[in-house]
Amino acid sequence: MSTSQTSTPDPLGHALLDYQQGQHDATVTVFSNVAEEEPLPASYFFRSLWEMPELEREALEECRGRVLDLGGGAGCHALELQNRGFDVKSVDVSEGAVRVMQARGVREVARHNIFELTHESSKYDTLLMLMNGLGLVGTLDGLKRFLAYAPTLLAPGGQILATSSDISYLYEDEDGALVFDLNGPYYGEVEYTMHYGDQTGHQFNWLFADASILQDYAEEAGYEVEFLGEDEQQQYLARLTYKG
User: Fold this and answer.
1) What are the tens digits of pLDDT across the range 139-193?
2) Tag placement on the chain: N or C end, fewer CB within 10 Å?
3) Rounded to two decimals, what is the model's pTM?
4) For the chain, what is the mean pLDDT?
5) Judging by beta carbons within 10 Å of its beta carbon (0-12, 13-18, 19+), is residue 33 exposed, middle or buried?
6) Residue 45 resides in a domain
7) 3-state secondary structure of 157
8) DSSP for residue 6
9) Which residues contact 137 (CB under 8 A, 6 or more apart)?
10) Furthest CA-CA distance within the chain
């Protein structure tokens, strides 16, 4: 591992910095409470347009106006939108990710979590949340909070374009029946920890919302919901338009 440093535990950011500096085998190990540990290559965050899944390419086609890219990673979506002439700002909570995006030429970058954008100078026509990006809200309570907060960022007629997944398949028994505690937390609320080199990050929550629960929460919060596509991994792309 290289000596690139960030000021707080930031395993993903370190991996992105190392990849940016030529260490192309940099890989984060991801631990969760629902599956075995799995590798996450830093290279995945540096994808070109034609390396992106179809749902991500479709989301980029659906962008309009001024775009806020939430959870920007290494900036692959922001850079593609810049190349198409969009005014786009990309934010990420990872210090390393922000430094990588700046180095790669994303013109407007900030380090924030998704609830800290309270002093924006102008509104956005599109909030973009890709790579299961709806998960940034963390939990169903976080989803409710975000849906109430997002209109403060959106211009009139603005949209949220987000991908998420139904992970109920993780709870199927050999007969295909779902086995989880209906009185426990929602099955799509997942706890993650990332590890890279000698760094272990803080545990964080990530939400995988099935389409029906997203629709219920969004409609209750005053949004019109459209589902624009779905893939073989039960990931879908949704457009939420605030009706005010």
Assistant:
1) 999 999 999 999 999 999 999 999 999 987 665 656 665 555 666 789 899 999 9
2) C
3) 0.92
4) 91
5) exposed
6) no
7) strand
8) -
9) 114, 143, 145, 146, 207
10) 54
Closest CA to 168 of 217, 215, 211: 211
Per the structure, how many domains does the chain have? Answer: 1
The answer as to whether 10 is a domain residue is: no
* Phi, psi torsion values for 138, nearest 5 degrees: 90, -55
- The count of residues in the chain is 244
Domain that holds residue 76: 51-188+206-242
Residue matched to tokens 């950011």: 13
Measured from the Cβ of residue 228, the count of other Cβ atoms closer than 10 Å reads 15
Strands (E), 53-123: 67-70, 88-92, 109-111
What is the rounded distance in angstroms from the CA atom of residue 50 to the CA atom of residue 33? 32
9 in a structural domain: no
Tokens standing for 138?
């963390």
The tokens for 146 are 């975000």
Using alpha carbons, select from 79, 101, 96, 97 the residue that is nearest to residue 88: 79
**Predicted pLDDT at 172:** 61
Tokens of 163: 């991908």
| Rounded-to-integer distance, Cα 50 and Cα 28, Å | 23
Q: Which amino acid is at 158?
A: G
pLDDT in tens, 62-106: 999 999 999 999 999 999 999 999 999 999 999 999 999 999 999
Q: For residues 20 and 45, give the distance between their C-alpha atoms in angstroms, rounded to a whole number.
A: 11
Domain contains 3: no
Instruction: Report how far residue 231's alpha carbon sits from residue 26's, in angstroms, rounded to the nearest whole number.
Output: 28
Angle (deg, nearest 10), helices 95-104 and 11-20? 20
CB within 8 Å of 146: residues ≥ 6 apart: 114, 115, 136, 137
